């Protein structure tokens, strides 16, 4: 039975956003249940007696943490946009734009991510050093506690003991977010907000804000908003979600590879010292080259489309 009806009108953008939220709730519950079943099959019933140890970072249950991370991420970010496309009676490829990417444009995306790294590092440091005024100090302490907890979990997930751990981290931290989060936030949220507002910039920045907010890491909020906006413009200009997925994967894969490098050189993963020292003019150069590459990417698309 063919469920794809190209002539059928889509639901309203408002309803599509509500559907994404509803599917996300269903997806994360289903993902959590499947993860718990998997952990039960691996660890037995004793698993449920050690939830606090698991959440506390006990290395004995590291695989359980990774299973939970993978299944909840898939449920929260991949299931909603896939179901949304299905309910619109379209394939995922039709609904979100999986136009075959051009190799030279993918290379430009790679250059954008590489040359923007010093700039993003500077923004991240500024964000991490953020302080709130006296009356908001209790809020800042709470935010720091949440940030420290998130950092502890991140370090736990990035810790590798074998080549298999590294490959699994690339899958869990780079590939899954690149596909699932881009479908959710660029394909689902940004697309719907654009239909609602008619303004691509509003759609890109609002979805980037939500993309950053859902990670609940306040002292990494600004760089993640900028990354989300960068992914959004790549998607909007090209009409193909492959480019934003590629950029997202490069960004996360770099973090995984960097963590491996730090561990092999006995450097703490939570170290605040930069791997490579960059002078102030290096950050300016990074910003200038990044902006140039974005403009070049956009112009190449116009030339290819004959505009």
**Proportion of beta-strand residues:** under 5%
* Uncertain spans: 1-7
Terminal residue distance: 40 Å
Order of helices and strands: HHHHHHHHHHHH
Radius of gyration: 21 Å
Shape: globular
Q: State the domain count.
A: 2
Question: Could you explain the architecture of this structure?
Answer:
There is one protein chain. The protein is globular and about 60 Å long. It has twelve helices and no strands. The protein has 307 residues and is an all-alpha fold. It folds into two domains: 96 residues, no CATH class; 208 residues, no CATH class.
Gist of the model:
The chain has 307 residues and is mainly α.
Structural features:
307 residues, mainly alpha, 2 domains, 12 helices, 0% strand, globular
Secondary structure layout plus pairing:
Layout: H1 13-43, H2 51-55, H3 62-87, H4 92-96, H5 103-115, H6 117-128, H7 137-158, H8 163-197, H9 200-213, H10 221-238, H11 241-264, H12 280-304
Helix pairs in contact: 1-3, 1-8, 3-8, 5-11, 5-12, 6-10, 6-12, 8-9, 8-10, 8-11, 9-10, 10-11
């Amino acid at each position: 039975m063919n469920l794809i009806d190209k002539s059928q009108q889509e639901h309203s953008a408002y309803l599509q956003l509500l559907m994404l939220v509803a599917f996300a709730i269903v997806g994360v519950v289903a993902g959590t249940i499947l993860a718990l079943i998997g952990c039960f099959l691996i660890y037995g019933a004793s698993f449920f007696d050690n939830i606090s140890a698991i959440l506390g970072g006990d290395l004995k249950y590291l695989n359980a943490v990774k299973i939970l991370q993978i299944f909840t991420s898939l449920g929260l970010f991949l299931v909603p946009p896939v179901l949304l496309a299905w309910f619109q009676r379209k394939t995922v490829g039709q609904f979100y734009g999986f136009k075959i990417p051009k190799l030279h444009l993918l290379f430009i995306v790679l250059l954008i991510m590489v040359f923007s790294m010093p700039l993003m590092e500077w923004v991240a440091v500024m964000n991490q050093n953020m302080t709130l005024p006296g009356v908001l100090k209790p809020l800042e302490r709470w935010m720091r506690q949440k940030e420290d907890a998130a950092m502890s979990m991140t370090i736990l997930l990035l810790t590798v003991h074998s080549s298999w751990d590294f490959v699994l981290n690339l899958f869990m931290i780079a590939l899954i977010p690149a596909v699932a989060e881009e479908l959710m936030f660029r394909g689902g949220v940004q697309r719907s907000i654009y239909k609602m507002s008619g303004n691509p910039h509003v759609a890109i920045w609002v979805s980037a804000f939500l993309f950053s907010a859902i990670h609940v890491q306040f002292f990494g909020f600004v760089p993640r908003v900028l990354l989300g906006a960068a992914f959004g413009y790549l998607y909007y200009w090209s009409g193909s979600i492959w480019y934003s997925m590629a950029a997202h994967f490069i960004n996360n894969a770099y973090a995984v590879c960097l963590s491996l490098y730090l561990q092999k050189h006995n450097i703490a993963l939570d170290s605040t010292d930069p791997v490579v020292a960059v002078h102030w003019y290096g950050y300016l150069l990074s910003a200038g080259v990044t902006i140039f590459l974005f403009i070049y990417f956009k112009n190449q698309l116009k030339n290819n489309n004959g505009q």
